[in-house]
Design a protein that fits this description.
This protein is of the alpha+beta class and about 70 residues long. It has 1 helix and 3 strands.
Length: about 70
């Protein structure tokens, strides 16, 4: 395991009491339980990549604001 980060695809991130978006790709800190007991939080998250095409009208105002608030 070591210090290498973990790559997750379309897995939830816990970023708010009512928000668990599922970005297309997230790079998170490695944990021994591989997040089996809880989803990654902003403190665990190193990079989020969300690809929006058909969902752009929703993603910009809604998901973007969730990510910004979590920082």
């Amino acid at each position: 395991m070591g210090d290498r980060p973990t790559l997750q695809c379309q897995s939830p991130l816990t970023i708010a009491f009512d928000g668990e978006p599922e970005p297309d790709v997230a790079i998170v800190k490695t944990r021994e339980d591989d997040y089996a007991s809880a989803h990654p939080t902003p403190a665990d998250t190193l990079l989020v990549i969300a690809v929006a095409d058909s969902s752009l009208e929703y993603d910009r105002p809604v998901k973007l604001s969730l990510y910004v608030e979590a920082c």
